[in-house]
Amino acid sequence: MIFDVVVFWLAVSVVVTASAWLADAGFRNVDVPGRWVWLAALWAPVVLLLVPRAWPGFSGAVGVAAPLPTVVFELPEIVVGPEGPSWIAWAAVASGVIWAVSSAWMLFVLARTHIGLGVESRAWEQTRVSETEVFVSEDTGPAVAGLVRPWIVLPRWTLTLPAEDLDLIVLHESEHLKGRDTRLLAAGLLAVAAAPWNPIAWWQLRRLRAAMEVDCDRRVLRQSPEIERYGKSLIRVAAQTSGVSLGLAAFSERPAHLQQRIVTMTSVRTPWTSVRSALFALLAVVIGVQGCSLDSPVTIDDREARTVESIEIPAGSEAAIAADLRAEPTFTPFTVAPSILNRDEIVSQMTAEYPPLLRDAGIGGSVRVYFFINEDGLVEQVRIDQSSGHPALDEAAMNVAGAYRFSPAMNGAEGEEEPVPVWVSFPITFRIDGGQPARPSN
Known about the structure:
Layout (H helix, E strand, L loop, with lengths): L1 H27 L6 H20 L3 H4 L11 E2 L3 E3 L5 H36 L3 E5 L2 E6 L5 E3 L5 E5 L7 H16 L2 H14 L4 H25 L3 H14 L8 E2 L4 H12 L4 H22 L25 H10 L11 E2 L2 H11 L2 H5 L4 E9 L5 E8 L4 H9 L6 E2 L1 E3 L6 E3 L1 E9 L12
Parallel strand pairs: 1-14, 2-14, 4-6
Antiparallel strand pairs: 3-4, 5-6, 5-7, 8-11, 9-10, 9-14, 12-13
Helix pairs in contact: 1-2, 1-7, 1-10, 2-6, 2-7, 4-6, 5-7, 5-8, 6-7, 7-9, 8-9
């Protein structure tokens, strides 16, 4: 399970990062804030992993193909074969522990940084610069810190700068205050703390910080369009700043980001700028939808997987409806889904039915089957929906059909449910060595 989650997390991160990069590239030249696309990219793996658990209809809500009410009810897969080497289970446990410990450690570091800045600020001088209340430190800043009531901190050496440069620095930090950027940054840091092992998330966080600075630069230049002086101020401050704390929204960031900011400030808009931005945004949406279509490995219980409102059946028509149901696989309304009661027994019998020649040759495969279950939970019909490609495997799956025991599907208001016949479908996978079919069918 843990490996499935890691693969899913990385896959979503790759897709949404591509989408966010395109969106940010398009927004940057048309004065649209890009910070929100990077925050969304940071939280996308968490949302897409957990939301389907709480909201099964989420996939349909975002435009992904969702099961239609006419589709046969799907039960979880049955896997026949070895569970895999014991080290795999231990590796999964170890991975989970490492994940939990690393996330806890990062949360501790963030909390310590936040508290440390608060304690350190008690020794700073509070004064007024450019008509704005600021703290003056020895070497921290220029930046904004604090979550509940953010404040500006300037290093003492900035007070020796020309008044025009100092005004621009304070104006930039004031825009961080107005944009509540420390809270935005905290949200990004929490998303990274959810999976600190993910290098893509750290890169997304860097892009979020860069987008925040670009947005602030844009707002500053609207009020004071002195691009040359402002650019020189950025370079001068960057040359004297020792580094940026995790919890600070800073005037000067990394040199690569500084170059991007200056290029953005000095770029010239042309008639093609809006067209290019629109194309980038369209591509971003297309790629982002692909990320939403990835199936979360966190599945819901099969008895909760499909619920519909009770449908009353007119008197005297039960026999006709039952005959129609038996004719071919179709969806039956129910409020409580059926489930397999003897899954372990079925797996054991299918293991015995595994064709020796295929098993010894390391050949596996997956066959999808339809089962018609009557009101007593008994199997009346079995049909192959999709062959494994090996008739012997298909036959092995069919041979055990009579051994299945199901809880019957129920339909009706709570407390008044009655058993109903229903078609179900699920794949049966025959695997060899370590949990994967050794040689799937062509």
